[in-house]
Structure formats: structure tokens, C-alpha cells
Write a structure and sequence with these properties.
Blueprint lengths: L3 E11 L5 E12 L4 E5 L6 H9 L6 E6 L2 E2 L7 E4 L11 H11 L4 H14 L15 H14 L4 E5 L7 H18 L2 E6 L2 H7 L2 E5 L6 E6 L11 H16 L5
Helix pairs in contact: 2-3, 2-4, 3-4, 6-7
Length: 253
């Protein structure tokens, strides 16, 4: 299962002058098992802070996070995370990068490389298994990062603007590939993005945050089936509704 509940989450950071900067303010929402949810918000509204709290990398000042009914305290093997920067080990080959988390879990070598090979095949990079990250394109490196996260078999996958540094053509291609992976694995996904177009193309629901401090501005249902046509009337209508809200109340910069 992958049901997530975020309840009254607040987080602040100390300033140099002794005051506090509130980044998240009483944030509450739910994500259903196997749902694909995108979170839109301006720079500094707390999107990455939110993912780090869900991942257990940081501790919230106030509020609670529950996964499948259990309160989360610290990191959990049920949660995987993909960063924008790839975060691959440059001295390890592609398959060694994918197998790294399994190695840290103490899994025997034959078994971890068998699993790593399966996910390598899933992202269509088997022929590059012995290459190093420096020998790959940005899009290929991000596919390796996704495979590494999935190899640990999390129920919840957190993605922090994973395609933000890529060119438009590669970004569109990886969006389609990610949806194919999601259809095959049925993981619950929370995906951070600045792009309204990307959010409408990918998600079941879009959570729009206010500028700092991050609060829920509105949650949009995306009623279209998949695959989605970016040029269709339905796509344009949902995109326009989100943009209108952003322009009126929740400016994304």
C-alpha cells in the first residue's frame, strides 16, 4: 500500500538575525495508494522541504506524516527519492549505482545484481550497464537514478523536479517513460515541478501551494485519461484553470 497523510505540517528555519523563516504553515493533504500527484509552487515555498520531511531526512517542527496508517519517524525503506541532480556515484558503473541501495541493505551479490538488472531493463539501459555516469546523457543519468530508487521497491516514490535541468525534448520523452514505469510498477508518486504543462500531463491531481509560507492554495483533479494529448481542448482547459488560479492568487515564479 502507499496511502500518505500529511497533517498540519509546519516547518521554520532560523535567520541570522535570530528570527525564524516559516517555510511550511499547517500543510495538510492526502495521497491515495497508486496515485500520481504533482505539487506546484514558487521557488522558496517549501516544496523540497516538504519532500525531505516525508522522506524522513528532516524532522518537522509541528504536524505529523502517516504512511499506511503508521506515523513516520525518520527514514523508511517504504519511501524512495529521486533528486534533480541525479546523485549518482561517478566511480560506480550504471549497474553498480542501481545495486548500491541493495548492497547497503546487506543483500547477497547475486540477488542484488539480478534485481538491478531487472530495473536496468525496465528503463531500457541494459546495454549501458558497464558505463559510468560521465559517459551518459543527462536523460540517461536520470533514468539510472529512477531505476536505483525503484530497485529498493518503495511503496512511495518522491521526485524533486527530476526533469528540471533537461532540455524540452528530453523532458517530454522522460515524462512519457515515467508514466510507462508508473503503469508497470503502480507506485504512489509525489512529483515536484514548476511546469503547469508537466503537472497536467503527468498527474491524477495537482496540489498548488501558495508562495512562502507554503499552504494549500487549491487541489485540482485532472479528469483526463492517459495517454494525454497536449494539444487537445481538454488539456488546454485544465491548464488554463491552473494558470488562472496561479495568476490570481498563487503566483509561481
Amino acid at each position: 500500500m502507499g496511502d500518505l497523510q500529511v497533517r498540519n505540517l509546519s516547518q521554520s528555519f532560523p535567520r541570522d538575525d535570530g528570527s525564524e523563516l516559516t517555510v511550511l504553515d499547517h500543510l495538510s493533504f492526502e495521497v491515495k495508494d497508486k496515485e500520481f500527484v504533482c505539487i506546484l509552487g514558487s521557488s522558496g515555498c517549501g516544496k523540497t522541504t516538504l519532500l525531505r520531511l516525508i522522506a524522513g531526512l528532516d524532522t518537522a517542527q509541528a504536524g505529523s506524516i502517516f504512511l499506511d496508517g503508521d506515523e513516520m519517524r525518520g527514514q523508511s525503506p517504504k519511501v524512495g527519492m529521486v533528486f534533480q541532480e541525479y546523485s549518482l556515484f561517478p566511480w560506480r558503473t550504471v549497474i553498480d549505482n542501481i545495486a548500491f541501495g541493495l548492497e547497503m541493505q546487506g543483500m547477497p551479490k547475486d540477488e542484488r545484481y539480478r534485481i538491478a538488472g531487472q530495473y536496468l531493463d525496465l528503463v531500457n539501459l541494459t546495454q549501458f550497464k558497464d558505463n559510468y555516469p560521465s559517459e551518459l546523457s543527462g536523460g540517461m543519468r536520470q533514468r539510472v537514478a529512477v531505476a536505483r530508487a525503484l530497485a529498493l521497491d518503495p511503496v512511495l516514490l518522491l521526485m524533486d523536479e527530476p526533469f528540471g535541468a533537461l532540455d524540452a525534448q528530453t523532458r517530454n520523452m522522460l515524462q512519457k517513460e515515467l508514466l510507462d514505469l508508473w503503469e508497470k510498477t503502480k507506485k504512489t508518486i509525489i512529483f515536484i515541478t514548476h511546469s503547469v504543462d508537466e503537472a497536467v500531463y503527468l498527474s491524477d491531481r495537482i496540489i498548488v501551494l501558495t508562495p512562502r509560507p507554503g499552504r494549500i492554495c487549491k487541489i485540482f483533479e485532472v479528469p483526463m485519461g492517459r495517454p494525454r494529448d497536449r494539444t487537445s481542448v481538454d488539456f488546454a482547459q485544465v491548464r488554463r484553470e491552473v494558470l488562472d488560479l496561479i495568476n490570481q492568487n498563487c503566483s509561481i515564479q
